[in-house]
Design a protein that fits this description.
The protein has one domain: Thiol Ester Dehydrase, Chain A (Roll), CATH 3.10.129. It has 2 helices and 5 strands; from the N terminus they run E-H-E-E-E-E-H. Strands 1-3-4-5-2 form a 5-stranded antiparallel beta sheet. The longest helix has 29 residues.
C-alpha cells in the first residue's frame, strides 16, 4: 500500500436522500421501525462511501444510535451522509436523519450514527482508500470524533476476541 504521502486525496461529496414513511414501515406505536431507519442510514453510508471510493463498500460496524424523536406515517425522511474519517482500508460515514412534516414544513432531528465501512475488491478483500481533505474546523472536529469512535470500536473488538478465546 502507498504511504500516506503517496495516497490520493479525494473530496467526498455529501449524500442527501429522501424517503416517505408508509404504513408498512410502522411499529405498534405508529412510528417508523427503528430497524427500518437504521437500514436507510446504512444504505446512505454505503452509497456515500462507494461513490467516493469508487468501489463497493460494506458495513463493518455501527456506532450507537440514539433515537431522539420518532418518524411518523406520511412524514418525509431526510438522510444526510458524509465521509468524515479515513483509515487505511476502512472509513467512517456520519449519517443524520430528520423528519419533515409535508403539510406544515416543520422539520425535526431524529438521530445520527457513525458507520464504519470497508471497501472491497472482486475477491472480497479490503482495499486501500484515498484520503479526504480535512481543512475546516468542523471537518477537524468530525475527524477527531470519528477517530475516537474507531479506537473504542477496536478496543471492544479486542475484548470480544479475548472472550471468545477463553
Amino acid at each position: 500500500m502507498a504511504s500516506e504521502k503517496q495516497r490520493e486525496t479525494r473530496r467526498a461529496e455529501p449524500l442527501e436522500t429522501f424517503e416517505v414513511v408508509f404504513p408498512q414501515d410502522l411499529n405498534p406505536m405508529h412510528t417508523m421501525f427503528g430497524g427500518a431507519v437504521v437500514a436507510l442510514m446504512d444504505k446512505a453510508a454505503g452509497i456515500v462511501v462507494s461513490r467516493w471510493a469508487r468501489r463497493p463498500a460494506v458495513t463493518a460496524s455501527i456506532d450507537a444510535i440514539q433515537f431522539l424523536t420518532p418518524l411518523r406515517q406520511g412524514q418525509m425522511v431526510q438522510i444526510s451522509a458524509h465521509v468524515v474519517y479515513v483509515g487505511k482500508s476502512s472509513c467512517m460515514a456520519r449519517v443524520q436523519v430528520w423528519g419533515n412534516d409535508i403539510s406544515s414544513g416543520d422539520r425535526h432531528f431524529c438521530c445520527e450514527g457513525y458507520f464504519t465501512m470497508v471497501t472491497m475488491d472482486a475477491n472480497f478483500r479490503p482495499v486501500g482508500l484515498p484520503l479526504i481533505p480535512v481543512e475546516s474546523d468542523e471537518e477537524k472536529t468530525q475527524w477527531e470524533y470519528a477517530r475516537q469512535i474507531k479506537q473504542a470500536m477496536l478496543e471492544r473488538r479486542d475484548r470480544a476476541r479475548r472472550m471468545e478465546e477463553e
